[in-house]
C-alpha cells in the first residue's frame, strides 16, 4: 500500500520542521545538608512520652520524579507546614525498584495485555551518568503534647534539610581492564540460552574496547536499531523543533483541508494519550469552529511519499499493535484504544483521524484532497519538541513515531520522505558525523523488519560518542539526550518489569534499548559499574528460546555483570 494510493492527489510542497528558541538549561547543583546550630537543637521538641497521645502529622511525601528525564534526578525533602515536624516515612513493602515512567511495552511483534499502571519509586535510579547519593537520613522528632493544660511554647526550629549529594560518574573512576571484564562476562556470555551471540563493551572515557564477541558481524538488531534513528535525529534536527498540523481554507466556501504535518502523536482523547505533551484534536477543531461553519472536510497526505508499510513487515503487525500505515496525519499513533500502548492499530489511520475531526466540526465524513497553495490557515497544533519525541519513541519503543521521525530527518537532509529516503538520511547523517557503517544494512528506521542487519560495534560506537565524560566533542553535546531516553532497568519503559532475580544488581544502574523479534533479542545501552565508571554495551542474540523466561533474563544478567564488575 502506498501513501499516494491513500491520498489520490499530487503532492504539495513540504515544509521543514519549525524551530523554537528556548532558554539555557539549568545547571546541575550539588547540595549539602545544612546542620542546625546548637541553639536550634535545643529548641527541637522532645519525643512524646508513652502515656501521651501524638498530634497528627501533616507532612506529605514528595511526588516521585521520572528517572529518565534529561537532567539528573534531584530528590527534595518532604513538604510540610511551617512549625510542624515530620515523622519518618514508612518502610516500603516491596524491595524491587518500581519507578514512575512509561509502562512496559513488549517489543515489536510480541503482544500482551494492556500495560500496568506505573508505580511509585522506592529507590534512587541512575540518570544520565549520575549517581545520586543521599547525604544522610533526617530524623524528625514528634511534638510532645502536654494535654489540655499544656502551656504553649516557642515554635520549634525548622528541621534540618536533607539534600542529595550528586556525584558524577567520570573518567576519574578506576578503569576496568579488558581481562577483568572478560572474566566477569565469561560465564554469562557462555549461557547456551543466548544461542549465537554478538556483542561489544567499551569504556567511553578512554575509548578502550573491553570485550567483544563477533562485534563486527552484522546481526538483526530488532528495536535496538532505534538507537541509530534517534542519534541521527539529535544530530540533524533541532531539539526544540516541533511537528505542525494545520487546517486551511479549502477552494469552496465551508470546505477545510487538514494538512498532515507528520505528527502521529495528536491525541483524540485528551488525558489518555501515551505521548506526553501531545497536541489534541479538540484544540485543532475548536480553532477551526471559531472561524465559521464547516460543511466539508478534506485531508492532505502529500508530506510523505512511497509505501505506507515497510519492507518485510508482516500483515499481522497492524492487528498485533506493532505498527500502523505510516501517513502524515493520524491520532495516537493509529491506536484504536488510545490509552493502550500495546493495543490494536487501525489500517486507515488518516481516514479515522479526519472523520473524528469532521465529527467535531459538524461536517460529514472526510475525504482525501489537496490543500490550495497559499490557503488561509484556520487552525494549527504542534507536537512536543523533537527531544521529547525521541525520548518517547525510545521508552515505549514506538515504531510509528520512529518512522515519522526518520521521514523528518529525510526532509531536513533533502531526501525523499519515504522508507527508502528515511534510511538513506539516517545513514548519511551518521556517516557525516564520523560513524563507520561497514556491514550495516537496514530497510526501515524502527527495526521492525527482520531484514535489518548491523554490527554490535556500530551501536557501541554511537553510545560511546553520547557517553563521553566531557562534551567538547560536538557529537557528544548533541547526543547526550540519547542516554536519558534509554529505559531504566526495573524502572521505566520496556525495562520496567525486568531485572529481577540474578540480574537484580543491575536494577537502576543499567539504561538500555531493548529489541525483540522472532528468534531475535537485543540489549544495548550504558551501565555504571561499582567503581563509578560508565561503560557502554551492545548484545544481540539469535536464540530461538523463550524471550520472556529465557533469553531476556540472560541478556539482563550480562549487563548486570558489568555493573558488579569493578574489574580494574
Automatic annotation (TrEMBL):
Which Gene Ontology molecular-function terms are recorded? serine-type carboxypeptidase activity
Kindly indicate where the leader peptide sits in this chain: none
According to its UniProt entry, the protein's GO biological process terms are: peptidoglycan metabolic process; proteolysis
Domain of life (superkingdom): Bacteria
Pfam families attached to this UniProt entry: Peptidase_S13
UniProt keyword annotations, A-Z: Carboxypeptidase, Hydrolase, Membrane, Protease, Transmembrane, Transmembrane helix
Please list where the region (Disordered) is annotated.
Answer: 1-115
InterPro entries with a match to the protein in the record? Beta-lactam/transpept-like, Peptidase_S13
Stated family: Belongs to the peptidase S13 family.
Its recorded name reads: D-alanyl-D-alanine carboxypeptidase / D-alanyl-D-alanine-endopeptidase (Penicillin-binding protein 4)
Species of the source: Lentzea xinjiangensis
Amino acid at each position: 500500500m502506498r501513501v499516494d494510493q491513500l491520498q489520490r492527489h499530487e503532492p504539495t510542497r513540504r515544509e521543514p520542521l519549525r524551530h523554537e528558541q528556548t532558554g539555557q538549561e539549568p545547571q546541575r547543583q550539588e547540595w549539602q545538608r545544612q546542620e542546625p546550630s546548637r541553639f536550634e537543637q535545643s529548641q527541637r521538641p522532645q519525643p512524646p512520652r508513652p502515656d501521651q497521645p501524638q498530634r497528627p502529622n501533616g507532612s506529605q511525601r514528595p511526588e516521585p520524579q521520572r528517572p529518565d528525564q534529561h537532567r539528573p534526578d534531584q530528590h527534595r525533602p518532604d513538604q510540610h507546614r511551617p512549625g510542624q515536624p515530620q515523622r519518618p516515612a514508612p518502610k516500603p513493602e516491596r524491595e524491587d525498584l518500581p519507578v514512575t515512567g512509561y509502562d512496559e511495552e513488549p517489543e515489536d511483534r510480541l503482544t500482551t495485555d494492556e500495560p500496568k499502571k506505573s508505580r511509585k519509586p522506592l529507590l534512587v535510579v541512575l540518570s544520565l551518568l549520575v549517581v545520586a547519593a543521599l547525604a544522610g537520613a533526617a530524623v524528625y522528632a514528634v511534638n510532645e503534647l502536654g494535654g489540655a493544660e499544656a502551656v504553649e511554647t516557642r515554635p520549634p526550629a525548622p528541621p534540618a534539610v536533607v539534600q542529595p549529594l550528586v556525584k558524577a560518574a567520570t573518567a576519574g573512576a578506576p578503569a576496568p581492564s579488558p581481562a577483568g571484564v572478560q572474566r566477569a562476562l565469561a560465564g554469562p556470555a557462555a549461557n547456551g540460552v543466548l544461542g549465537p551471540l554478538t556483542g561489544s563493551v567499551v569504556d567511553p572515557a578512554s575509548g578502550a574496547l573491553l570485550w567483544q564477541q563477533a562485534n563486527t558481524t552484522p546481526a538483526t538488531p530488532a528495536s535496538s536499531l532505534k538507537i541509530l534513528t534517534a542519534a541521527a535525529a539529535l544530530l540533524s534536527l533541532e531539539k526544540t523543533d516541533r511537528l505542525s498540523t494545520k487546517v486551511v481554507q479549502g477552494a469552496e466556501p465551508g470546505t477545510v483541508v487538514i494538512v498532515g504535518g507528520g505528527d502521529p502523536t495528536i491525541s483524540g482523547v485528551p488525558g489518555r494519550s501515551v505521548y506526553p505533551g501531545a497536541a489534541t484534536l479538540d484544540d485543532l477543531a475548536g480553532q477551526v469552529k471559531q472561524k465559521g461553519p464547516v460543511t466539508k472536510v478534506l485531508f492532505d497526505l502529500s508530506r510523505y511519499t512511497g509505501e505506507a508499510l515497510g519492507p518485510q513487515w508482516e500483515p499481522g503487525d497492524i492487528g498485533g499493535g506493532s505498527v500502523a500505515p505510516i501517513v502524515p496525519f493520524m491520532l495516537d499513533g493509529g491506536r484504536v484504544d488510545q490509552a493502550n500502548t500495546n493495543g490494536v492499530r487501525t489500517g486507515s489511520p488518516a481516514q479515522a483521524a479526519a472523520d473524528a475531526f469532521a465529527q467535531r466540526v459538524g461536517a460529514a465524513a472526510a475525504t482525501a484532497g489537496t490543500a490550495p497553495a497559499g490557503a488561509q490557515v484556520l487552525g494549527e497544533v504542534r507536537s512536543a519538541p523533537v527531544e521529547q519525541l525521541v525520548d518517547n519513541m525510545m521508552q515505549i519503543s514506538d515504531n510509528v513515531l520512529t518512522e515519522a521521525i526518520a521521514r523528518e530527518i529525510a526532509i531536513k537532509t533533502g531526501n525523499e520522505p519515504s522508507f527508502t529516503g528515511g534510511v538513506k538520511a539516517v545513514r548519511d547523517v551518521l556517516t557525516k558525523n564520523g560513524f563507520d557503517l561497514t556491514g550495516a544494512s537496514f530497510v526501515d528506521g524502527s527495526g521492525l523488519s527482520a531484514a535489518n542487519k548491523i554490527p554490535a560495534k556500530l551501536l557501541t560506537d554511537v553510545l560511546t560518542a553520547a557517553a563521553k565524560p566531557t562534551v567538547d566533542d560536538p557529537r557528544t553535546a548533541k547526543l547526550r539526550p540519547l542516554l536519558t531516553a534509554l529505559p531504566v532497568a526495573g524502572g521505566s519503559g520496556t525495562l520496567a518489569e525486568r531485572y529481577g532475580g540474578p540480574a537484580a544488581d543491575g536494577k537502576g544502574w543499567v539504561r538500555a534499548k531493548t529489541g525483540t523479534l522472532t528468534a531475535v533479542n537485543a540489549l544495548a545501552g550504558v551501565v555504571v559499574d561499582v567503581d563509578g565508571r560508565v561503560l557502554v554495551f551492545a548484545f544481540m542474540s539469535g536464540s530461538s528460546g523463550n524471550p520472556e523466561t529465557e533469553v531476556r533474563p540472560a541478556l539482563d544478567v550480562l549487563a548486570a555483570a558489568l555493573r558488579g564488575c569493578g574489574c580494574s
